[in-house]
Amino acid sequence: MNLSGGDGYRGRVPLGKDYDRQDCALARALEVVGERWTMLVLRDCFFGVRRFADLRAHLDIPRAVLSDRLATLVDAGILERRPYAAGRDEYVLTEDGLDLWPALFSLARWGDRHRVGPGGGRRRFRHADCPAGGADLAAGAVCPACGTLPAPSSLETRALDPDDDDGTRPERDDAVSRALRRPHRLLAPLP
Questions:
Q1: Segment Disordered: which positions (predicted)?
Q2: How would you write the pLDDT of the chain (191 residues) with one tens digit per residue?
Q3: CA nearest 12: which of 3, 21, 20?
Q4: What is the pTM of this model?
Q5: Rounded alpha-carbon distances, angstroms, from residue 127 to 91, 155, 181, 183
């Protein structure tokens, strides 16, 4: 085994879930949202995905991992479990969870600029309730038309225009992916 920290050692170090020796708000936040899959679960919750089966199908996430991430987010007050049918719950963002939107958006935009390549990301977000006519969100999740930080519920997301797609990404065919091909208000239930 390569102990130098190079690629041969990557991914083989078990990591804890906390940062006990770090007296820092970022460390406390990462204890809740810093585990693998958590930000993607939150992204889908902002898109309006609420049910376990839909989250699992759209994310291709192992059942046990999704159960753990959802339990962590519920325990932290980021998501709330609500019954929707006998023996079935859905997961809805709380006020604390909604406050994560600017961070999630900014991280996605960073990925568009530095990790996706030509053409940027696959989604756009528009301030649909903008008094100045609306525009795609700019850095920091701010609407450039009115200068505000809109609430997630006043945003519409849409897929990248097909003419702008470079064709290198496979198109998914789960129910959530199909629903997200059309413009959709954030937080409105899917699919």
A1: 153-191
A2: 444 445 555 556 555 666 777 788 888 888 888 888 999 999 999 999 999 999 999 999 999 999 999 999 999 999 999 999 888 999 999 999 999 999 999 999 888 888 876 555 678 899 999 999 888 998 889 999 999 999 999 999 998 765 555 555 556 788 998 898 899 999 999 86
A3: 3
A4: 0.84
A5: 24, 5, 18, 12
Q: Which residues contact 145 (CB under 8 A, 6 or more apart)?
A: 127, 130, 132, 133, 134, 135
Residue pointed to by tokens 């810093």: 34
- HEC profile for 96-123? HHHCCHHHHHHHHHHHHHHHHCCCCCCE
For the chain, the distance separating the N- and C-terminal CA atoms, rounded to the nearest angstrom, is 46
H helix or E strand, kind and range, residue 158: strand 155-159
For residue 187, which of 115, 104, 93 has the smallest C-alpha distance?
93
Tokens standing for 66? Answer: 């999704």
Cα–Cα distance for residue pair 145/132, rounded to 1 Å = 6
Angstrom CA distances, 110 to 8, 17, 33, stand at: 27, 25, 17
Contact 157, 186 (CB under 8 A): yes
